[in-house]
Every structure is written in structure tokens, then in C-alpha cells.
Amino acid sequence: MTDAKTIRAAAVQMNSTGNVAANLETADRLVRAAARDGAELVVLPEKWHVLAGAEVMAAHAQPLDGPAGGWGAAIAGELGIDLIAGSILERRPGQNRYANTSVHYGPDGGVRAAYSKLHLFDVEVDGVRYAESDMEEAGDRVVSSVLATGARIGLSVCYDLRFPELYRALAGVEVIAVPSAFTLATTRDHWDVLLRARAIENQAFVVAANQIGAFLPGHRSGGRSAIVDPWGVVLARAPDRETHVIADLDLTQLERVRRELPALAHRRLAPSMRLEP
Q1: How do 6-13 and 243-250 pair as beta strands?
Q2: How far apart are the first and last CA of the chain?
Q3: How far, in Å, CA of 249 to CA of 216, rounded?
Q4: Which of 4, 20, 89, 97 could serve as a FRET partner for 137 with CA atoms 20 to 30 Å apart?
């Protein structure tokens, strides 16, 4: 556990599109605004760099040390913040498909960790089909990292939020990052419930940065970026526009919750609780 008692965190909400230059300008402006408000930890949304149709996405996929990564490292170092740079479509040498990868940059501008999304969004919502596996490859590792304060942060991306076993594998971290591009329908009906559940069951703070608005005809993200405490209380929620929200993560509260309601220590899986074939 860190010696610091609070971490000021921000979730950045964007309406990314196929206009890469405009997306970068918005990300830069909002990250700087969050830092001016005292944020030590800033989380960007999923695919902040470009969010569009398959051809546009593929055209702007890049390695982690490409232009998007270069900007992330530079601004984290300049502002002296921990930056969870949402995710980008990562181009990998010798691979036909891309990874959806989130990178943690430390206050020195160095890469602290990288996580590739484990769960691909192959679903139909409100009559719209999403098939991430057509061009993306799932990751194969659970990843946590350490913030400048010494607190541990678990990395996840969007659709991962529906899979509690991932977060159980991260049990013990103080903060969970959830950069997302949740659809409008799933944001409306599921987003808050899932964020609060992941916070409560893992007794951790959740910093969730969502996209908002249309990026293709019939494709719209729902916003409501939020910061949730280990008791499941929403500390901050974004209005329906590009913005950032900020909250202080009180680690003494987290310690108290874990001490007084030690659910993580009580976990067990008896043989009778296992599903028989």
C-alpha cells in the first residue's frame, strides 16, 4: 500500500472520430485541463486516437512507439502525471490483426505497463453488429502497474467490464482503470451497475473514461464517465459532452472498507461449489 493517503484522479470523456488531428487536440486539451485541476492520475477513453470504420482504423493503427504513444509519453512527462492512455489499435510486426492496447505512462514519460484487451466485442446491440474479432486479436495477459504514489492500478478495457473473473485476478489493486467506448444502449442500462459492482466486489476505486456521441452512422457511445469508490458510491460523473471529471481517491477509506468488511480475505471455493461436468 502507498504512503500517500489520497490520489487525485480524472476520467477524460471524448467524442473521438476518424479525424485523428482533432482527436489528438481534444485529448491534449482535456488532459492539460485535468492536470490544472490537480489530477495526478488521468485516464483516457478506449480508442481515443481514432474511432471510425474498419478501413480508417486500420489506416491509423500504429505501434506503441508511434505518434500516439509519443504524445502520451511526452505529455505524461511534461505534466508529471500518471497517464492511462485509454487504448489504441496497436500494429504489431508480423501480425495480420491488431491489438487493442492500453498503456500506462509514468510521470517521467516512461512506459510502466501495457495491456491488450482480453475480451473482444462480438455482439449485436440495438440491431447494430459489432465484430472486433474481424480485425483485432485478444490479449493473453492480466496486467497491473504501479502509480507514482506506490498504489497499484489494474488495467482493463471496455467490454472487459462484463467479466468479473478478470477483476478477481486483479484483486488487491487499489485502483482499476476502465477506458471504454460503451454503446449508448449499454451505457444507459448497464454501465453504472457494472462499474459499481466491480468497485464493490473488489473493494477498489474505479476510474472509467467513456466515449460519448456518434462516430459512425448508427454507432453512438453513451458517455457517463465516472469515478467510483470502494463502497460503490459514484464520486464523479460526466455530463453529456467532451470534458473531464475529477475526484480524490481516499486510500484511508479503502483501507477501512477492507479492514471492516474483509470480503477479499474471506474468498473460498469449496469443492461443492464447483460446477460438475
Answers
A1: antiparallel
A2: 40
A3: 35
A4: 20
The pLDDT tens digits of the residues spanning 161-214 come to: 999 999 999 999 999 999 999 999 999 999 999 999 999 999 999 999 999 999
For 36-89, how does the pLDDT look when each residue is reduced to its tens digit (9 = 90+)? 999 999 999 999 999 999 999 999 999 999 999 999 999 999 999 999 999 999
Any idea which residues carry the catalytic annotation? 46, 117, 158
- Rounded to the nearest 10 degrees, what angle do helices 67-79 and 20-36 cross at? 10
- The CA distance from 158 to 195, in Å, is 11
Residue 254's H or E segment, with its range, is helix 251-260
- What are the DSSP E strand ranges found in the chain? 6-13, 41-43, 82-84, 88-90, 99-105, 111-116, 122-125, 128-131, 144-146, 152-155, 175-180, 205-210, 212-216, 219-222, 226-228, 234-237, 243-250
Assign 16 to helix, strand or coil: coil
Question: How far is 177 from 229, CA to CA, in rounded Å?
Answer: 12
Grid cell of 16 as nine digits = 473521438
Distance (Å) of CA 156 to CA 72, 80, 120: 18, 23, 12
- The answer, as to whether pTM is greater than 0.90, is yes
Nearest to 226 by CA among 204, 246, 212: 246
- pLDDT tier for residue 2 given thresholds of 50, 70 and 90: very low
CA nearest to 267, candidates 206, 203, 207: 203
Which residue, among 162, 179, 223, has the nearest Cα to 87 in the 3D structure? 179
